Phosphoglycerate mutase-like protein
Amino acid sequence: MGVNYRWAYPSFYTENTPFTLWANKYSTTVFRVVDSARLFARGYLGPNATSVGKVYSIDSKDPRSIANSLAPSDLCPNYSDNSGGVNATTWANIYLPPIVKRINALLHGLQFNSSDVNIFPYLCGFETQITGHRSPWCDIFTEEEILQYEYAQDIRYWYGTGLGTDLEKNMMLPFLTALVQRFVDGPNATYPSNSSSGSFQPNPLIATFTNDGQINQLAAAIGVFDNEPQLPATHIPRDRLFRASCISPMRGTIGFERLDCGRRGLFMRIKLNDAVYPVANCQDGPGRSCKLGDYQELVKEKMERFGDFEVACGVANSSVVPVGRERTTFLTEVGLPFEEVVVP
């Protein structure tokens, strides 16, 4: 991935110059998100990555990082990902029993239930990814059954962290607000630094790494699915735009491109895993992009409708959460007390 981005935007990086990335710390024992950032840096920077690269690992569970991390939901007591709730259960009770019946008819002395069979596609995906060879678990299902399982994942994310929720879909709005401001400021902007250098100039390529839950929260906030109807729990709708498999496969990416079109102005283009997804209510620019100022206003209106982040999360009267810090600053303010530096 790092190599591909270096090729895609060759003017964004000058050899052997400093490069900053950010990653969600996730936990004190599991480092897969930070390791993803480290490996990206090695691909993007090349042999000198360990000397010029710097990954800021952000502790999203530190109370000082309220709304200022890559997983702000970690500090929200009111946040609850129910994995799709009753809608997921309704669909599972429709599509799984026929599959269970078909599989059990092939067996002697062993019977599976719906919970067992629901895990089989995971085995297909993970074993294929881990071994580099197609897993035999993938051959257990018909194409129709795989598409039914795909839709189960759509419901899981839509009603767990996405546009089928009230609170959860807004969790990444502070991050999105700060990210859009970086695009408005432009690639040459500098900011005060907490370090001895006196200033910080982010790289033209802004690379951040987090978990699939946060990727889906961000997908809900960016505006590309705003006009989509709620997903039904009883059947698969035709031509639906939202597909979780297109947002967070084994490596999901959400990309934002700042397009400088000269006298026409600045525009924002959004990509999910390299495919362009037009913003639902703002796609009059080149390639169905959105004028950058209009997109900033769209995000601002979403944030205003959401209201006070600390109040919504349930920490407004907490003695451990700093008052008035419900905004994301880490993209322009390095050396924060809840960050630590990891070398690639």
